């Protein structure tokens, strides 16, 4: 049994290390920083990493039209992380994060289509090739739409205390506990089982 919604997926495209299991692209973007082998790892180290992440998310950044600025993308990622963390902790979103999200929200002009995926209707960018600023504007829109909706209450941190991944719990029962059963759920189950044998 998996606690993931059917729309969730773990993508391993071209041996890509990126995971898309959060049910929201802005959260997936935050999850590019993860705890691997007890070490916090940032998977976005270069422009090509960013391009690969976008590709895995079903988007392409058109580098012919506009140059990348990795730092700008990472600044937005930090704003997302601080905003969602504030939401999880029932705090107000820090003013600086709100300003950063709003700045990029102005660049949101991506047309979307309603699309059926694994029995769920999801909104997707109509044009998959985006300029860099439109790409960030699109992500800002993903974050802002969620933060402004009642669904924001269902943004959660994985219950594995060594895991820093967050996700939107879209399960009917709102009882999703793990980023994914494969990554943390089974590990927790195995640890519980081991403890039982030991006692
Ligand atoms: Zn986890």
Characterise the protein shown here.
- This protein has 199 residues and is α+β, with helices and mostly antiparallel strands.
- It has a single domain (13-198), classed as Jann2411-like domain (Jann2411-like fold), CATH 1.10.3300.10.
- Helices cover 40% and strands 15% of the residues.
- The chain contains six helices and eight strands.
- The strands form four sheets. The chain has a two-stranded antiparallel ribbon.
- α3 packs across α4, α3 (70-88) runs parallel beside α5 (132-147) and α4 packs across α5.
- It is globular and about 60 Å long.
- The relative contact order is 0.18.
- Residues 1-14 have low confidence and may be disordered.
- It binds zinc ion.
What does the secondary structure layout of this molecule look like, with pairings?
Blueprint: H1 25-30, E1 33-36, E2 39-42, H2 47-56, E3 60-61, H3 70-88, H4 95-105, E4 112-117, E5 120-125, E6 129-130, H5 132-147, E7 155-157, E8 166-168, H6 181-198
Parallel strand pairs: 3-6
Antiparallel strand pairs: 1-2, 4-5, 7-8
Helix pairs in contact: 3-4, 3-5, 4-5
Tally of domains: 1
Characterize the biggest β-sheet: 2 strands, antiparallel
What's the architecture, going by CATH?
Orthogonal Bundle
Mean pLDDT: 86
- CATH topological fold name: Jann2411-like fold
- Tell me the number of helical segments per DSSP (H or I, 4 or more residues long): 6
Bound molecules: zinc ion
**C-alpha geometry:** globular
**Poorly predicted runs of 5 or more residues:** 1-14
In whole angstroms, how far apart are the ends? 27 Å
């Amino acid at each position: 049994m998996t606690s993931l919604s059917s729309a969730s997926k773990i993508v391993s495209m071209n041996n890509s290390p990126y995971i898309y299991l959060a049910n929201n692209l802005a959260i997936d973007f935050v999850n590019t920083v993860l705890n691997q082998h007890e070490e916090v790892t940032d998977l976005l180290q270069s422009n090509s990493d960013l391009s690969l992440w976008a590709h895995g998310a079903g988007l392409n950044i058109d580098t012919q039209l506009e140059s990348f600025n990795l730092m700008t993308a990472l600044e937005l990622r930090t704003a997302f992380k601080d905003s969602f963390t504030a939401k999880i902790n029932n705090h107000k979103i820090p003013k600086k994060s709100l300003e950063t999200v709003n700045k990029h929200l102005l660049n949101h002009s991506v047309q979307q289509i309603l699309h059926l995926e694994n029995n769920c209707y999801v909104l997707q960018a109509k044009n998959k090739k985006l300029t860099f600023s439109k790409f960030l504007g699109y992500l800002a829109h993903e974050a802002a739409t969620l933060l402004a909706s009642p669904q924001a209450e269902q943004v959660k941190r994985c219950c594995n205390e060594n895991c820093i991944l967050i996700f939107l719990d879209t399960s009917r029962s709102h009882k999703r506990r793990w980023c994914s059963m494969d990554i943390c759920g089974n590990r927790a189950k195995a640890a519980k089982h081991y403890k039982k044998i030991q006692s």
